[in-house]
Amino acid sequence: MKKLQMLCLAAFTILFANTTFAQETEATNYDQGFRLGFGVNGGIPTDNDYDWSLGGDVRLQYDLSKKTSLTLTTGFTNLFMGKDDLGNDIKDLGFIPAKAGFKAFVLKDQFYVLGELGAGFAVTNGYNQTTFLWAPGIGYANKYIDLSVRYEDYHDFRTNQVALRVAYGFKL
Predict the structure, then answer these.
(1) What is the C-alpha to C-alpha distance for residues 164 and 148, in angstroms, rounded to an integer?
(2) In whole angstroms, what separates CA 57 from the centre of its chain?
(3) How far apart are CA 36 and CA 108, in angstroms?
(4) In whole angstroms, what is the distance from residue 42 CA to residue 146 CA?
(5) How many of the other CB atoms lie within 10 Å of CB of 113?
(6) Is the pLDDT of residue 76 over 60?
(7) What is the SS3 assignment for the chain?
(8) Distance CA 93, CA 144 (A)
């Protein structure tokens, strides 16, 4: 699992560095502004503790330039019942993620890489812990639709997932 995490982090770093250098030649008169997106997320945990996940989110995006944006994302994610190493049932885990991120468009102003850091606040079934979470991802966005795939690690929940996000967004 550490190899997957390191691979995702290395890929994000390389793509981020590549787009940073490309920004130096861009025009500086881009109209900065906010976008709001509403998404549905489905995922498959990469360990054996939970079977699958489903959630929804709201993402506020501030465009710094035509190719870079800052993001704030929150919502609700539920990890559905699975089994522990002894075969005992594990209760569902629902939590509220709160993440800040950086989005860089790398190809034709539609394909992007995204990195997010934040916290996950457990809110269901007697769980009351908070975890650090990080999520590198890749995606495609146009004027209204945003499709992305991300790896999301929940440190203190002792699980992680690969998730697909389908979202509708618009300028504010």
Answers:
(1) 6
(2) 10
(3) 21
(4) 14
(5) 23
(6) yes
(7) CHHHHHHHHHHHHHHHHHHHHHHHHCCCCCCCEEEEEEEEEEEEECCCCCCCEEEEEEEEEEECCCCEEEEEEEEEEEECCEECCCCCEECCEEEEEEEEEEEEEEECCCEEEEEEEEEEEECCCCCCCEEEEEEEEEEEECCCEEEEEEEEEECCCCEEEEEEEEEEEEEC
(8) 31
Give the residue-averaged pLDDT of 86-112. 92
Q: Of 127, 49, 125, which is closest to residue 89 (Cα–Cα)? A: 49
Range in 115-119, 125-129, 143-147 the model is least confident about: 125-129
First to last CA, the chain: 39
Q: With 0-12 CB in 10 A as exposed, 13-18 as middle and 19+ as buried, what is 25? A: exposed
User: Tokens 């991802």 belong to which residue?
Assistant: 137
CB 164 within 8 A of CB 55: no
93-107 and 130-141 beta bridge pairing = unpaired
Confidence of residue 102 (pLDDT cuts 50, 70, 90): very high
Kindly report the average pLDDT of the chain as a whole number.
86
Please check whether residue 3 is in contact with residue 151, taking contact to mean a CB–CB distance below 8 angstroms: no
